[in-house]
């Protein structure tokens, strides 16, 4: 697969006002897509006529793109409107004669489609750009069936348009391009876990910066999900579940900073080397904070680097706050079903039930036992609480509570004192000072790896004494909660920042699933509702919280593929929940519903956010009245679909007369609101009544209810 970026535009015209920013803007976009997003680029088509653009961007089968190629076209210049069509002005375009002297937006799509572009993103930086998006979309729907036979196997499968302004708005200077660059480069749109940047997240970020214009986007064709036109430049191929500070600090494979546990690793290596008895799997057990996850991930790292696994497939799955369905889906996507191998599962004791009850961990352990029994060619290894280990002999156990790991813990404490934010970071401690102070930290932690981590992180923020001792080296053993507050307060700049960090972490403590995404403001907005913040929580507040609490936060991916954040350990989350005022859990549930309702009112054209859907849980079952209504709706839908297919099959041009054919139905009536804005544009909003839902079908494809 090759990613192609093509830039075109005009800054100097013979008949229109000049746009001096265009040359620099196109060069900036070429650098952005080429250097940061890994696209292949070519010199910009600058100052061409409409015919010149057609000749250089178009072509026949001899200039076709590959079947898996991704194509992004960026156009900057004047936009002209005439007879309901949107035109891209060339160097010699005349405002009074756009059809003869300019390039219609839909023709630009046709040019690329004729060259076999199957995955296309069109970015229009012109005035009234959204009108061009609508025209391009209609052309795609109405015309692609008329391609020459040579192109029948190369039709578009993914097509989106990103617009600098709405259909009735002007675009101003380089504001759009600068906003796009800022969005791509901001961690808010994607941290280190998300492989791609979602178009909607980029649009929301851009509109926060733009003042007098509003960027929009439209997806006219997509594959299973929105295509990844924007690969995330910050993405790191690391396992889920490691602290955010370590994700930021290193790449995988590489130095992990793991020390000790040689006996446990030896037992795990021996288990892997011997023939697996049918029906047996290996459970790594131990009290919270004994280092189960760290041990499991070190074992996984050694397997992926070829230390003992040979050619066997290895799959690591983090099931914290996830259900059995997630585990089975990951297995189905991997080579394990056909080739066998090693399945490494972390976080069984924090798994969720599909029904939202408390039986998730037990269900997950039962599935692992059944999998090991049914597929002896798949070795199953998991971290699990002791009470979940069955007594039936279907599991072997590595019990970290029984192992004397004081020497290992001293090495771990010394590393944290020197590198508190992961390999490569530095504190004010030397390696020699850290080795001298580490035994005292181990004594205070009393064998608890979680406490050891917190105490070491707090100690690393304090300059060592001349004798190498930490200030609290011989103090009493704190609780996890007190140690957590000490770390956060020591890493914060002042008491006000400490309070805001605690507020934002409290929002994560009451979240579900993968956590809360920062993109589109979900994390700060929901948290402000949960914690009753009088002032909005800003992006700068989130940035500081991620920096302060980086060793205590884990980054994952939410159902929409965006970076989402949660507490790295359930003990941290429990400490924050215990410290929250009474009624916070109920407010958290209401906050999700209120945020969902507010966003639906603000953006009625958008689907429900997948993160909000995940947090809102399963909907109540339909009533008998709702079920009967659904039968009638399905019957009506079938009739409309067959009628539409009948006419379009016999009269292909008929489809162009109904480009917006939509069936909208409700079980208990609807509310229809019609409004007109200042530019005379009419908007019709259809809402279901509170106790019902909308059924929508467009162009024969269901896309929501």
What is the mean predicted local confidence, pLDDT? 80
What is the molecular shape?
globular
Helix amount: 40-55%
Main pleated-sheet profile: 7 strands, mixed
* CATH architecture field of the largest domain: 3-Layer(aba) Sandwich
Strand tally is 23
Cα distance spanning the termini: 35 Å
Number of domains: 4
What fold name goes in the CATH topology slot of the largest domain?
Rossmann fold
Q: Strand content of the residues, in percent?
A: 15-25%
* Structural class category: alpha/beta
Number of helices: 24
Report the C-alpha radius of gyration, rounded. Answer: 29 Å
- Text of the CATH class of the largest domain: Alpha Beta
Describe the structure.
- InterPro entries: AAA+_ATPase, Caspase-like_dom_sf, P-loop_NTPase, Pept_C14_caspase.
- One of its GO terms (molecular function) is cysteine-type endopeptidase activity.
- With 705 residues, the protein is an alpha/beta fold.
- It has 24 helices and 23 strands.
- It has four domains: 219 residues, Rossmann fold, CATH 3.40.50.1460; 141 residues, Rossmann fold; 125 residues; 81 residues, no CATH class.
- β13, α13 and β14 form a beta-alpha-beta unit.
- The longest helix has 27 residues.
- The C terminus is likely disordered.
List the helices and strands and how they pair.
Elements: E1 3-9, H1 22-36, E2 40-41, E3 45-46, H2 50-57, E4 70-76, E5 79-82, E6 85-88, H3 98-101, E7 103-104, H4 105-114, E8 119-125, H5 129-143, E9 158-163, H6 175-185, H7 199-209, E10 216-221, H8 244-249, H9 262-273, E11 281-285, H10 292-304, E12 313-318, H11 324-333, H12 336-339, E13 341-346, H13 360-374, E14 378-383, E15 395-399, H14 406-418, H15 431-445, H16 449-460, H17 480-491, H18 495-509, E16 516-517, H19 522-530, H20 539-548, E17 553-557, E18 563-567, H21 570-579, H22 584-602, H23 610-616, H24 624-650, E19 662-666, E20 670-676, E21 682-688, E22 694-698, E23 701-704
Helix pairs in contact: 4-5, 6-7, 14-15, 14-16, 15-16, 16-17, 18-19, 18-20, 18-21, 19-22, 22-23
């Amino acid at each position: 697969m090759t990613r192609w970026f093509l830039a075109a535009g005009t800054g100097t015209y013979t008949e229109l006002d000049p746009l001096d920013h265009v040359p620099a803007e196109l060069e900036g976009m070429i650098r952005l897509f080429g250097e940061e997003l890994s696209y292949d680029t070519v010199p910009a088509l600058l100052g061409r006529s409409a015919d010149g653009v057609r000749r250089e961007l178009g072509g026949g089968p001899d200039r076709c793109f590959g079947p898996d190629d991704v194509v992004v076209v960026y156009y900057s210049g004047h936009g002209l409107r005439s007879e309901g069509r949107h035109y891209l002005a060339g160097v010699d375009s005349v405002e009074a004669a756009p059809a003869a002297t300019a390039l219609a937006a839909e023709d630009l799509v046709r040019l690329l489609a004729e060259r076999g572009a199957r995955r296309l993103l069109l970015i229009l930086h012109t005035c009234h750009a959204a009108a061009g998006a609508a025209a391009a979309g209609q052309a795609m729907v109405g015309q692609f069936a008329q391609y020459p036979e040579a192109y029948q196997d190369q039709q578009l499968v993914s097509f989106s348009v990103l617009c600098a302004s709405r259909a009735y708005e002007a675009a101003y200077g380089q504001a759009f391009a600068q906003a796009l660059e800022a969005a791509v480069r901001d961690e808010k749109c994607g941290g280190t876990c998300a492989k791609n940047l979602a178009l909607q997240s980029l649009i929301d970020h851009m509109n926060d910066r733009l003042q007098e214009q509003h960027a929009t986007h439209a997806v006219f064709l997509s594959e299973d999900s929105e295509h990844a036109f924007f690969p995330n430049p910050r993405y790191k191929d690391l396992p889920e579940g490691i602290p955010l500070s370590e994700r930021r600090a290193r790449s995988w494979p590489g130095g992990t900073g793991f020390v000790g546990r040689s006996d446990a690793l030896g037992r795990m290596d021996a288990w892997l080397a011997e023939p697996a008895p049918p029906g047996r799997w290996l459970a790594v057990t131990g009290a919270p904070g004994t280092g189960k996850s760290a041990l499991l991930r070190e074992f996984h790292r050694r397997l992926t680097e070829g230390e003992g696994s040979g050619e066997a497939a290895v799959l690591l799955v983090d099931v914290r706050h996830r259900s059995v369905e997630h585990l089975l889906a990951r297995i189905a996507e991997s080579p394990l079903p056909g080739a066998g191998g090693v399945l490494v599962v972390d976080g069984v004791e924090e798994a969720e039930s599909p029904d939202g009850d408390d039986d998730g961990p037990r269900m997950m352990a039962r599935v692992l036992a059944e999998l090991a029994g049914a597929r002896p060619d798949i070795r199953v290894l998991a971290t699990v609480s002791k009470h979940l280990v069955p007594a039936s002999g279907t599991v072997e156990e590595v019990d970290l509570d029984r192992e004397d790991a004081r020497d290992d813990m001293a090495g771990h404490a010394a590393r944290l004192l020197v590198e508190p934010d992961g390999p490569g970071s530095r504190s004010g401690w030397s390696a020699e000072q850290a080795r001298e102070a580490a035994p005292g930290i181990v004594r205070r932690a009393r064998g608890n790896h979680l406490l050891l981590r917190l105490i070491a992180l707090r100690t690393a923020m304090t300059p060592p004494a001349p004798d190498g001792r930490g200030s609290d080296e011989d103090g009493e053993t704190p609780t996890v909660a007190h140690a957590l507050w000490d770390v956060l307060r020591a890493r914060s700049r002042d008491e006000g920042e400490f309070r805001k960090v605690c507020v934002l972490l409290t929002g994560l403590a009451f979240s579900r699933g993968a956590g809360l995404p920062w993109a589109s403001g979900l994390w700060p907005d929901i948290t402000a509702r949960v914690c009753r913040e009088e002032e909005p929580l800003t992006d700068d507040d989130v940035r500081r919280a991620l920096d302060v609490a980086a060793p205590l936060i884990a980054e994952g991916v939410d159902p929409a593929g965006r970076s989402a954040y949660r507490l790295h350990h359930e003990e941290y989350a429990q400490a924050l929940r215990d410290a929250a005022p009474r009624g916070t859990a109920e407010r958290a549930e209401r906050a999700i519903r209120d945020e969902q309702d507010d966003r639906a009112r603000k953006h009625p054209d958008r689907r429900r956010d997948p993160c909000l859907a995940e947090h809102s849980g399963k909907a109540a079952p339909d009533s008998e009245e709702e079920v009967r209504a659904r039968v009638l709706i399905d019957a009506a839908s079938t009739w409309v679909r067959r009628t539409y297919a009948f006419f379009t099959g016999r009269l292909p041009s008929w489809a162009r007369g109904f480009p917006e054919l939509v069936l909208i139905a409700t079980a208990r009536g609807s509310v229809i609101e019609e409004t007109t804005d200042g530019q005379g544009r009419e908007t019709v909003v259809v809402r279901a009544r509170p106790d019902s839902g909308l059924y929508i079908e467009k162009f024969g494809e269901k896309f929501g209810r």
